[in-house]
Amino acid sequence: MEAARPTLRCLRDDLDLPLPSLDKPLDSIAHPLLHKAGEQFAAAETPHERIRALDDQVFFKVKVQRWRGAVWAETGLPWLVAAGRRESGSPDDFYAAWSRRAGRRARHNAEIRPPLATDTCSAYLLPTQDDRLRYRLEAGLRFVRRLERTVPGLVGASLRDGHEHSMDLDTFVLGVQVRADAGHETYVAIRVTGSVPENITKIILDIVPGCDHGGWYPETVLPERSLRANEQAWSNIMDTAAAAKLLDLDEG
Question: Where are the domains of the chain?
Answer without folding.
Answer: 5-127, 138-251
